[in-house]
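Subject: Predicted fold for HTH-type transcriptional repressor CsiR, 233 residues

User T.R. writes:
Posting the sequence so we have a shared reference for the thread.
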Amino acid sequence: MTSTHAQLAYENLRSRLIAGEFQPGSRIRYGPIGQELGISATPVREAMGLLANEGFVELVPQLGAVVRSVSRTELIELYEMREAIEPYAAAKAAQRAGRSQLDAIGRTLKRMQALATRVDHSKTKVAGRQVTADFEKADLAFHMLIIEATGNQTMVRSGESSNALMRVFATERHAYDAELMKSTCRDHQQIFDAIASNNPVAASDAMQQHIASGLAITLDNLDSQRNHRWETL
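User M.O. replies:
I've generated the structure tokens; pasting them so everyone works from the same file.
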């Protein structure tokens, strides 16, 4: 049974991993995390065991917990899992979502649009760390609210796991510039409009296209980063 302090550490670290605070390959030290949370290192170690079981970190002898790095194949597999779940979920949401659920999805979309507008009006047109974290958080919420609208709890657990892992592994894949943020919002608007108009076919198609586009962007950036590393050797 997980202790209260271990649960606190688990929830804190999991949210920070999803937000991209810890880069893939980086070490997470038990002691400093415990000091931040006002607890000992023991429950932090217990929390790391839970996160390792979920695939977020690896427990390495003499080092402790290290944030996992993802291979190209694993990244594709995560997107394939999403592609199997989320278009179906969007179709079901178009049939089952109630007014309160639609309102929640709509509010999350507006939050993303506001962040995209802020970055678009900035001098650099590139999101800083906090805006990126806020955008990722809203993006995850948008997708999870749609899955939750199906009422299928097994699907919710699977969808949350694949979405969360993808965000941890993809923290290095690209910077959020204004164009990418606006493109994401346009995709989400199409998905939302289809769900709100009770059109399951359009909702499924829009979600499938959105996920396929996300995979293409992610792989393109991954390949660009690898090519850049070779060029600098």
